[in-house]
Amino acid sequence: MSAAVAVAAVALATGTAFKTTGFSAPESVLWDAGSKLFYVSNMAGSARAKDGEGWVSVLDAEGRFLAPRWANGLNAPKGLALAGGRLFVADIDLLAVIDVRTGAVVERIPVPGALFLNDVAAGPDGSVYVSDTLADVIWRLGPDGVLDQWASGDRLEGPNGLYVRGGRLYVASWGKAAPDFSTKVPGRLYWLDLKTKERHDVSKVPLGNLDGLAQASGGGWLVTDWVAGKLWRVSDPQGEAVLLASGLEGAADIGYDPRRRLIAVPCVRSDLVEGLWQAKLPR
Q1: What is the DSSP letter of 227?
Q2: Which domains does the chain possess?
Q3: Measured between alpha carbons, how far is residue 272 from residues 21, 37, 203, 212, 231 in Å?
Q4: Per-residue pLDDT tens for 158-188?
Q5: Dihedral sign, CA of 190, 195, 196, 197?
Q6: Under a CB-based contact definition with an 8 Å cutoff, are residues 124 and 107 in contact?
Q7: What one-character-per-residue DSSP string does 136-179 give?
Q8: What is the DSSP secondary structure assignment for residue 279, as one 8-state letter?
Q9: What span, in angstroms and rounded, lies between the C-alpha atoms of 226 and 84?
Q10: In 57-158, alpha helices (H)
């Protein structure tokens, strides 16, 4: 790693809570504190295949299967977000909307010109944001059902993981990606003001091909590097990155239970979800 990156490395500062197999290219995990369940999206093959073979699984709080194929008929589902009793799923070029009571897909919202919809985040006003990594676009679906291109351009650096907090949309970026997802400059963590859309960097220098993003207990952020298979904690606003875990093959969009400090990491390349305890590190 470049000496220019402000990184304090600690060897596996987390312990394993569970390691659940039986998935097919799991890309995103979402923790629902209300129901105490994990939702897991399964791409089931190619990340771009419109084949109807993808699904969403449901796990209990201990990482055990409750409904292996709770919602079916998706293509290559990725990011997940809950809003208004519905689960929003990024599915290549559309947002699939699932009724959480039944697991039925009740709506499919086309996103015009989308290349690779990736993560989804819900705001307190009911807005839903979705990133398109290859197109350098962030879309917003308003509470009124109107979809608009909320932000776009090279400055987004291949937006991937999203998280809304305190008038800000935090973004874990992949880096400017070619169609094969190769990058010359890796991504970083930054935020966009929800009113002005002005960008502010948390990572002062590029960190990696970032994917998952969650707010960490005790401050800062948890982010994954998909290519390197690493899990980081990034302090905010300092931007110092601390290595929490490595060897996570295709570490993607994490789910997080802040009460138990439990991180659920979907590992796309090894078809499993690994639960890790967040270490109590200094701020």
Answers
A1: T
A2: 7-277 (2.120.10.30)
A3: 4, 17, 29, 15, 15
A4: 999 999 999 999 999 999 888 889 988 999 9
A5: positive
A6: no
A7: TEEEEE-TTS-EEEEEESGGG-SEEEEEEETTEEEEEE-EEE-T
A8: P
A9: 30
A10: none
